[in-house]
């Protein structure tokens, strides 16, 4: 198959006119011998089985919708649909279908006329218009059949719509509806239902304007009450006239605006409640109805926005303390609906809309409303606030920074939002989740502006951490004063989880502000108390918070963690979890694994020196043994900086000598002062077959004496630290291979015993001693071979990079030069 496979879902329409998902797979088109034609094939992505094999029939009407959907009918009652993941895939298959049917791929439906012969099509083209039967009770069935037969053909739909417009036919049909209802003619009412529903599907604005006029709309709704498929008619008109009440919170003087509001509400009701759910084929036929409602809302918002007297009165009553609670509730709900309507506006019109609200003082008004006790009013005010934050967070930030210069922290708008979040009475904290999302938007640096004279990020974050962060973290600090959370009920844990998630967001997106706050307030210690919660989701939030901090690899954070032994609650949680294989177990292991893989030296040493006894028995993962290995390698480099340096030199092929220099080097080796071997690594050249072991032992014994002397001098320098740590001088064991062919590439091993944890050079013990300077000493002077214990990785890389640039002289030659 040459066609690219595309990911799709296969749907079939069931008897209830609902779409059933038949599975997900990859679609292709290919010639199928059994079907004798090009076919659509869908193979399941799970097991490769065939989900669909459908021949592309030249006469089948295929329809493309919403750029990613292709629908068609295989048989009279068997509709199929392919929903594509990508538009490109849909376009490719659509082109293949159009190619088989000989159609232009730019069309959205491949067959315009269904069940019509060429002769009928020619008659339609040549006839001047469609003649409607007389609008009489006895001819209703004939009218219904005419409407139904015209719907599949765009040309016939056009002619039917023109005939309905020109003859004022809709008003005549509605007069018949009143007659049928008076006579209780159920058959006629059912025909009228089909006719009116068909007129909706004609998708003509001119017809909608007639149907939705003040004198016609209630009769249109009445026709749609008598669905033939229902045993009893609906009571939509009763609901609209008795149950639904229009409330004017502020009197509307403009009659055109009043009429437009009534019309929009009723048409929206028809779309949402009265008309049956359209099938996939009918969905595009109601696009004009959607547009009608959309433009009505735009007009309403524009007319209200232009009425300055109306908006002034609205905000005055909202903030007036004398306004009673019921009235204020209605005012806030109106403002909420007003903002919801604004979502239909174009971007430039929406800019003007929110600018008008801002000038009218919507934010100070919201501040007053949020300070009230009525929960419903506060909920509506929160929804309005969310519209403002989502549209223009900078406007909200600017307002709160300005008011902070005049008001106390307690009544700041952001602090009111935080308090409502903390005091949410909903057991599921639905309101708190919404408010937390708004706070996250406000503190997100990604949507903050930066100009030449003003940096919003710096100003706002400084304001937030000074005036608001203590309010946000108050529940966390109050609940974590001991080793376990003082309150561990579900609702409290939900709230604390939200707070910790926001703090985690701050760690990721803010720099020194959150770092100073965490370290000064000891926030991480408090958060880690939550690992002892009985609710796993809260313990995981706390672990995510610490993991985010460790992931920054910031030594300020690392020193704070080590100084306060903040891995202790994590290790406790890990050990308390036991052998259970769950999220907590995996999250903690992943944290330690990150420290090992990233080779965070300070944390590695801290973990092994303080918690190794509790972790050494964990053998179902190699994480902790790997950490121990990292630690030992690190200590070895710190104890013997020149050892690592010498090994890297020996590993590097730069120092491979040719045979001519071996004798000179051998002579130099044994004549060199014993200080050259200070790092305790014995290197035996290949020519050692010419020397006996007795010849070798004399300089080695001298070396060991000098080594002991040097160790005693170091002890005198580090008396205080050495006495505290009780660290012993490393002992060296030199062994020589019995094979005469020991080479430079495989030097004899030097085993050493690192000091006990807490030794002066160990990380995590507070003050650190400065790294020793290593040098190769000869009889004649000092060769500057300097090495630092923590730079071993860079040293390896530097030596490898330098390899291609220049060749350094062999170590023995350097010794000769200096001697």
From TrEMBL:
Feature: compositional bias, Acidic residues: 670-681, 788-804
GO MF annotations in UniProt: protein phosphatase activator activity
UniProt biased composition (Low complexity): 729-772
Domain PP4R3 EVH1-like residues, every copy: 5-101
GO BP term, example: DNA damage response
Pfam families, A to Z: EVH1_PP4R3, PP4R3
Domain Serine/threonine-protein phosphatase 4 regulatory subunit 3-like central: 142-633
GO cellular component: nucleoplasm; protein phosphatase 4 complex
Biased composition (Basic and acidic residues): 703-718
Superkingdom of source: Eukaryota
Disordered, as annotated region: 670-819
InterPro entries, A to Z: ARM-like, ARM-type_fold, EVH1_PP4R3, P4R3-like_central_dom, PH-like_dom_sf, PP4R3-like
Family: Belongs to the SMEK family.
Function: Regulatory subunit of serine/threonine-protein phosphatase 4.
Protein name as catalogued: Serine/threonine-protein phosphatase 4 regulatory subunit 3
